[in-house]
Design a protein that fits this description.
two-stranded antiparallel sheet, alpha+beta, single chain
Amino acid sequence: MTRALDAAAARCLRSGAQLTELRRQVLALVLETDQPLGAYALLDKLKAQRPGAAPPTVYRALDFLLEQGLIHKVERLNAFIGCVEAGHDHGHGHDHAHEHGHQFLICGGCGATIELSDHAVAHALADAARRVGFQLRKTTVEAEGFCAACLASGAGAAAGAPA
């Protein structure tokens, strides 16, 4: 975790920004969980470290982390998850702010969310958009289904997943 946070701080410095202690704490809370967290869940966790923390505190930190490309917002869940490619150069000569196409697989059984960065999916979407005269600026795909663990346990079948 320390290595990931130090890499995030270095990334912020390269872009002329600063990962303050508060922002670092919020990022750590996002990174330490396997599932996306909503802003109020993050606030509850942050209050254990900063009893006076308020919603605007968390929202400002989340906005900063999104802008720096360190986290993603999973719109379907209205929650936040760490970026699996944070700190990597996305092939554009710099590593800033979600220039890679990403996809999220969201399990309807346990809530687990997996970020993919499948370039074939991003290219297929860009090609389809181009065919209808549309130029993409940003792509996010959120797909719902069931993870392997839920399917194996029967939770997916109970919720209507095909066997």
